[in-house]
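It is worth pausing here to work through a concrete case rather than discussing structure prediction in the abstract. The textbook approach is simple: state the sequence, then state the predicted structure, then interpret. We follow exactly that order.
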Amino acid sequence: MTSLAALLERHRAGMLAVALGVLGYGPEAEDAVQDAMLTAVRRIGELRDPSAAGAWLRTIVRNNCRMRLRTNTPVSLANFEGLGLRSSEPSPEELLERTVQRDWVWHALNTLSESVRLVTLLRYFSDVSSYDQIAAICGVPVGTVRSRLNQGRVKLAEALQATADLAHDDASAITEASRREAEETLAAAEQGEFERVVREAWSPELQVTIPDGQCFTGRGFLVRGMNDDLTRGVRQRIRNVVASRDLVIWEADLISLVGDPQGCPPGVVWMQHTRGGRVHRMRLFHPQRRG
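Step two, the predicted structure:
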């Protein structure tokens, strides 16, 4: 897999030329190239003809830039379809190779520092991916978000090269386990068992920051808040889970079953920091839903 890093570096100049041609000079062009490189890492198994790698990479950059111009919002790694890639079902050997590549990427991500890894996970693997929203949920300026993302891109490229030949944990199993935990937690809450789940899984010194920025210590506030929501007929449905070493992000839709005259936000993000297998710090955030 070290050849993948060499491939990206060999075509980087051409990718940047495309970005500059569409976006002009500035940080957005460099961001578009870096986004495209990470997209390529995740989707390299779909490239059938190695001789077409340059054109494939430039197409990803061009689509990325056009999407930025249309929406003026960051682009998710998943939003690249119609690139002329093979659409037939992959063989078992191809599925295995893609699994290995996925686990390799997540292993490299886990080598990043917590602060850098957090903004990288939010940017590329969640719906909370705009600079403004990442800044809000992390409680830092937008400039800091940009700086940490730049650090993440550089260090991730280095980590991918350094870890290419190592054995990697099963990323899908880790994520699936976290999704089951999220769904079981919400199901337990609806059955009146939320306090028990919290007591078992989260630290008694839990630090909770709520959407308005207030901070609370202990598990009681979270239990009361969940019970109040349930009493008002507000339920949560897990939509996406991002799980990494000592960082877990649950994205849930908020569903008001009886109507909420005060207005029910469309969703909530549970950003959890774990230590010794227990959540010791959490931030709740109501993201702006993309139109």
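Step three, interpretation. The first helix runs from residue 2 to 23. Strands lie at 202-209, 215-217, 234-244, 247-256, 267-275, 278-285.
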